[in-house]
Amino acid sequence: MSDLDSQLKELRRQAEKRLQDCKNDSVEIQPEQLAEQIHELEVHQIELKIQNEDLQRSQMELETSRDQYAELFDFAPVGYMIIDNKGRIVRTNLLSSEMFGMNRFQMAGVFFYTFVTKEYRRELFRHFQHVFKDQIRKTCEVKIALSDGTVFFAKMDSVVQPRGEKDKLQCLTLITDITKLKKTEVTNKQARQAAEDASRAKSQFLTAVSHDLRQPLQAMTTISDLLKRKLTDKKSLDLVNNLSSCLISMTELFNTLLNVSQLESGSIEPELKTFYANELLNRLDVTYRPLAMDKQLNLRVVDCSSALRCDPVLLYQILDNLVSNAIRYTDSGKVLVGCRRRKSMLRFEIWDTGIGIPENQREQIFDDYHQLYNPARDHSKGLGLGLAIAARSAKLLGQKIALNSWKNGSIFSIDAPLIDYQTNKSKKTSINNLENTKISTTSLLIIDDNSIILHSLSYLMESYGYKVTGTKSSHDAMAMIKDELRQFDFIISDYRLPNGETGIELIKKIRQTLGFNIPALLITGDLEMSMSQEFADSGLKLLHKPVGAEILNQHIQEIMG
User: Fold this and answer.
1) Which of 2, 23, 159, 529 has its Cβ near the most Cβ atoms within 10 Å?
2) Distance from C-alpha of 321 to C-alpha of 284, rounded to nearest angstrom
3) How far apart are CA 529 and CA 560, in angstroms?
4) Long-range contacts from 58-63, C-beta under 8 angstroms, 24+ separation
5) In the prediction, which pLDDT does 440 show?
6) Quick check: 377 pLDDT over 50?
7) Angle CA(476)–CA(479)–CA(484) in degrees, nearest 5?
8) Does a cis peptide bond (omega within 30 degrees of 0) precede residue 546?
9) Is pLDDT of 481 > 60?
10) Which residues fall within 8 angstroms of residue 63, CB to CB, at 6 or more apart?
11) In sequence order, what are the residues at sequence separation of 6 or more whose Cβ sits closer than 8 angstroms to the Cβ of residue 370?
């Protein structure tokens, strides 16, 4: 018997009792009172009838809603299950029974875990435990294996139904077949891994061949610089200058490709060091003053004694690209490189009086291969990767390159963290005052296993007035050092030497033999050498091949003080 029928039966019992009481008391009740009570009973009877009709209507609506819910549950376009707190299937809809290949009535009472592969059962048990304990919506993914051999991945979204006693709770679970999605994820992951492997292999290849490619570049650069100093015929000098320009372009393109490759592979991580801003500014001044003089530009690099805590290699790479870009796109006027303090940061600014950058191009210029005013794709103006490399390097440092431009000039800027630091500050040595430096009595020992580089570099440094001795092996170098008749003032060594030895090891042995730290520097074709711990511990100056004569000469004088 339903609750509604029970309520109606109880109401009838109470009404009959009241009517009987009225009849029992009718002897003592006056006719007027009796008529009044009969009227009240009739009204009460009508009220009961109305309530009965309302209850019947509510019951019909409830049954209709229940039927609609059942229809929605059974014919829903997604799989639904009702599962009790023991993990047993109470009820399933049509789609979920189709997914599991069973009659839904046969599934009733079956433990859901029997459909789940063993490696996912722990995840399933944890899922139901959280659903019934926390009584909030939970999601998990499981692998389903059916008796006919069908296997698929399913996503389960479960929530406890609000009705029911605590020990008889049930949850409504949405079952979604995500097999295609999982396959797509696997395919995408494999494709992404393949792309990363290819990028890493490309970077490793470029790094591996970097040394071998830089060797002939160094030889050609040294011979070109030597010819400039030896030749006097104007036509011959013009040819050599053209050759030198080609070598510079080749070196820039080569360095650009290697930088892009390293940044794309993610192999570069910032290595924070403490250093002075002047160390970078001096290098920029020495590197770009000859280029600015060739274009008859006024390059001004302002001293800055502030100390920084940053990655000097990445920061210099950014500034190098910004200054190079400023000179390349400035036909007349000046380029100014300076610094400003901004609270805890030092802002490097590069000003130029160049052609300016349209406002609608100020974001795109940091994209790969995007160049302004070079429709013919003249490679002498670069590949359009310099600013892209600078922007990626800035991102590694947690910074962003700022840009402001107008019709006749631009300002590029980048910030670096300041730090309080006191030591012997680097001295600025300009190319302009190198000619007054006395080098005629300086004796150089050059060690390089490449005969062409060794001989051409020896001849070149002799043209500057140095006394030069060259050798191809560390064994011969040590023999010369131990020879009391031979004395050297400075050592230039290639990093890679025969028999697996390094220039760092050789210089260390020479210093131990002599009993003092003879001035020395390294040259190398290994691009990543400057980021190694071995180099950081050596305290030596490192130059990357190809090294121009003026740059090499300047660093020798700077190290010798």
Assistant:
1) 529
2) 10
3) 23
4) 59/2, 59/4
5) 52
6) no
7) 145
8) yes
9) yes
10) none
11) 364, 384, 387, 388
